[in-house]
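Escalated from tier 1: alpha-L-rhamnopyranose holo job.
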Amino acid sequence: MKARINTSVLLSLIVLSACTFTNNTEFEGQAPIALKVGEGFVNPIGYYEQKPRFSWQIAPSAKYQFQHAYQIQVATSADNIAKADLWDSQKQLSTSNAWIQYQGTPLSSRQKVYWRVRIWDEQDKVSQWSEPAFIELGLLSNDDWQGQWIRHPETGETVTFDIIDNKTKNTKTVTNKVYRPQYLRRSFTTQNNTVLETAEVKPSIKQARLYITSKGIFNAYVNGQKVSEDVMTPGWTPYKQRIETLTYDVTSLVHSGENVLAATVAEGWHTGRYLKLRALKVKPSALLAQLEITYSNDTTQIITTDNNWQVTLNGPIRHAGNYDGETYDANYEMPGWNTVNFIPDNWNSVITEALEPDVELAPKRHQAAAVRLTIPAVDIVKVANPKPGVVVFDMGQNMLGVPELSVPGIANQKMTFRFAEALHKNTFYTKNLRTAKATDYYTPAKSGQIHYVPTFTFHGYRYVEVSGFDQSKTPNLSWVKGRVLHSNFNVHANFKSSHKKLNKLAENVVWGLRGNFLDIPTDCPQRDERLGWTGDAQVFAAPSMYMADVYGFWAAWMQSVRESQNPDGGVPNFVPNKGHGFGKLASAGWGDVAVIIPWELYLLNGDKQFLQDNYAMIKGWLDFHKSKSEQYISSLRGFKDWLQPYAKQGQTPQYLISTAYYARSLDYAAKIAKVLGYENDATTYADTLNKVKHAFRQKFYDEKTKVKSASTQTSYLLPLAFELFEGQDRLNAQQHLVETIEASDKHLGTGFLGTPLLAPVLQNIGRSDLMFDVLFKETYPSWFYSINNGATTTWERWNSYSLEAGFSEESMNSLNHYAYGAVAKWFYEGILGINAASAGFKDITIAPQFNQRLGHAAGSYHTPQGEIKVSWKIDQDQLDMQVTIPKNSRVNFELSQVSGLTINGVAITSSNQNLLLQRPPGVYKIRSTLINKG
Ligand code: RAM
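Tier 2 regenerated the structure:
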């Protein structure tokens, strides 16, 4: 028998002694690791939260398994950490290792704080303290900014464009403004350079921070050195409400004496056009910066954007736009323009503009974009009807990025670089880019090899067409590389199986992710669109979480969604939008993003703050749904089951879809309200849900639960996935669903909304075998059809392209749309069986779906507690599986297709089924016979 110890006495002893002897080996408990704040930030500079949320993990190598309590200390300096002069949580009995909110005095702009954590294990033994981590805040308020927006005085150049009129289909000419990229600079002398009257020692530079943002996109330099590798900063937010700001540590770049702070600013999303809306009024780009230098004597010098700056439009980047590409002329290069040795002759003085009080300047709350990969060209392709002097490179991969070009040029002979997603009947094809010109130009000042990477644009492409180069040289693969850009998060998708095409599909989905996560989630990266479509986002957000560290990315975009909500509660079709046309309207299955992303990401992370942050929007959205419904049937407009095969928008009736989504949003809202403790709201939403369910059932289905309209897969998937039917109705609907799938010879028949529901519904009704049949179909419409036709990403349409006939249509045909990639969630949740049994994966269910076509499958998922790993293989009928469960989690095994199970050598019989439930962290080796091969 264990002796009972008085825990509180023991604890005070531990706390006391731990404070005195922090490194005492008596406390061998391994310290927590992976300290993070907010949505995954490690030691951030320029952080955004005044009350940060702390997360950590137990090291996989620790001798203990669970956390039973924690203590967090926050201090003003690393030396003071044991004093916890800002906040000491004290010992808190809690198993939570994530999202613990700081409760001290809210942190202020620029403040740098240190924090550490220790935990008590299941035996109530305290661990060592973690290594201290830090957080440094950015500028939190507009009042922190002392400077003004600065820009070139010009008012843009008028350009004419030919566009196809949507109604008449005739070409018409419109005019608009474009703004040339600006080169801005100012020099300054550090304060410690002044001649000192006394003999005291000159103070040295202790720290320098650059706070900076722009309307448009910028690159910044101190003394000619780029301050960071970020690209397309500050990214895209609803600029009329909020512009994100960046913070850079430039301590090592500022010298005592004279310095130059400089920046280039181009159109980006702010000033550039979007969609075909050439005529939309655009405002010029501008820069806002504040360099703060702190000296060893604790004085501070601040350099801001003011009328001491000079600007020119006569730099080498002549034009730059997201859709149309960049034009670079080396004759305009200004060597050293951003250094002290340069004399800015003929530069203009900037004009200044006051900060708008209603435009919030806020620290960027997720990672900026960056070059994440560089890939080589794999082939020089022979096209049909080759034009002399034109060569086409194949990158082997459809991607979002910019080329890295090392091409031989001739002085003053313009080179042209065009981009295409695929060859069309062996020709270079750009019609599916619509009005996006997606062309870069480079004019060399002298003959020889150029080295050029476009700065202020991005393209969605696989093929690069190069012309204008030195014809005496033979094209070489080394001329072109592909720099892959996306927001700077880690991609750790690692699903692998014995099936090549399935693996290729999994890879393609990841490339769809890489290709559409440039600061905001986009529908596509190549044509004149590239917008944050909310429907696409709601289907792909949860799947993307299985593949990359994208929580911060989504949480940031959801803030933009909140800011874009219309006064009537409608959540727009795409975010950000410029308040123009159909972009700001709300649609069923699109606007529901307001509820779907908060709930589904909460299930994966367990971060209640995310629910709270979005709660007002959720309520507004439900009110909006209500205003669009009569007798609990919704008449909200939408895009139906967008791009369902064989039918443009889909045959499932709009109001059936709208009512189903009304129900889904009510259901999720009721759950969210419950988690947040808003019991009345939870009851109201649940009551309304019941009424909507009833109305839905009566309105759209007959007495045999057959849909009254055309029988589509989606018309059964929606009520089954959203649990809108009970009892016999549910069974009937299941049967009708299976019949419709069988009627199409097991091909899918779903669009954007139906497709993500297929796998979870079929698994839920015990028909994973049928899901595998659909998944492994080779012919249209199917996922493998695209692979059989050379896909390296997921496409917008099931038949966007074929090797034989090329692109199926001219418009609306992107080869890089992530929506249909939502199926990849099932690779992790279904095939590997990694499921959250409680929000945030503290409770895990492992329920793999085996199938005769798969000899093995493996992969992992990063939960807030650590990595879950699953791998299984089937040899004859023998199943061998290995599962790793991270610390501070428990696992249930649900293995339905097996018999004669052993776990770590122990046979599971009817009397010890408990060995399948609530198991602790560790490695499980599972063997069994497969009785149902699926
Ligand atoms: C297209 C977009 C997007 C889709 C909408 C309805 O233009 O590409 O994917 O959500 O239409």
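The longest strand covers residues 390-409.
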